[in-house]
């Protein structure tokens, strides 16, 4: 609401400036209000903050937690590598000694040190193990889980390497660098805010004895104005000797100026006061779309003249601020190639560069967010790995039980068929699993399976045997996994 009210007040002021213009004047009050507003937009955008994305520490938070779990699971012999030493009581940096430098281990070393730092607090290791589902773990439990999470850590480490050594699509241009491009273009080289503007900076590349013709241009020479603030001076400041410099070219509240066309003295203080008449800017972070739109809007204000192109109001010979001459930025187009400089002065090119870098940063931030989201998913998987190991063990046990039960059923059916195939009492009685249900002298299908014998066979013994077999198989598999894991870990650095 406050910004809207100020915008309405500004529009009223601009209309008021136009309404008091003398009919005979060539340059009249309010003539350059539209260019003034375009310059105001660029100046306010240059004042806004520039995002650099999240801090690296927050991006790596999930990976840091994974390394803490990994260290908590690692044997004491490994963790001794990071024990604090010496009079400074610091953890050692990577040192290959007389051997070959292991680049992978060297790159991971700072993360291992950081994990040990975070595990120094009392119960930190136990709490980390509990977070992964290990309440009272044995060394074997820890070893199995550590091996299980190694593939997750390998992938996480690959992601971290990309974040720490980014390719162009992941690289964040420093916000301060973009901000400097913006403020240099808006106010002049080295000026970060309008209040620090000086006459010399406003003159820019013009000679020390610069006058208004040098800065703003004329039909015989192009302007050298190299900032939005210098443009604002050229299109808004009236000549002090013309109606006491009281021509309101851009805003009804602009101060009368004592500035003379032959000097730049006091030009900066006058421009600083005029910038305060610009509408207030947003406090939100600067977006590339806003900057691009503002630059394009200003460039639409470029007008053709008899011997060149100009911004503002051109009347006769130049941009002196006199009503019968012009309040403008004039570019002479006599030489081939001048048209490019006219359409895009260096400071506007810099504004476009800043917009390009802002867009590149926005894309890089999105790409990095995809990677950090994957790190978070890997962290969750690492914390759930113990539950997966338990589930896998139960599944293997159940599968072993099912196979044993199936084998018992097949055995009973086979013996039953063997019994029923015997048709003589003497043959049937030789089988302890069979019984003869006919007379001694009779023959035929009288040999049957002793079902009661099988039903009464100790079930607990069968269950015990099946459990023992399943445990033995699981122990064999676990030992094999550990052996394979150890063999692998001997070839690569511990994560």
UniProtKB/TrEMBL annotation:
Region (Disordered): 439-484
Residues of the Trypanosome variant surface glycoprotein B-type N-terminal domain: 15-376
Signal peptide region: 1-25
Compositional bias of kind Basic and acidic residues: 453-463
Membrane-related topology note: Lipid-anchor; GPI-anchor
Keyword field: Cell membrane, Coiled coil, Glycoprotein, GPI-anchor, Lipoprotein, Membrane, Signal
Protein location: Cell membrane
Pfam families: VSG_B (PF13206)
Keyword Cell membrane: yes
Coiled coil regions in record: 348-395
GO cellular component, one term: plasma membrane
InterPro entries, alphabetized: Trypano_VSG_B_N_dom (IPR025932)
Protein function: VSG forms a coat on the surface of the parasite. The trypanosome evades the immune response of the host by expressing a series of antigenically distinct VSGs from an estimated 1000 VSG genes.
The name this protein goes by in its record: Variant surface glycoprotein 1051
Source species of the chain: Trypanosoma brucei
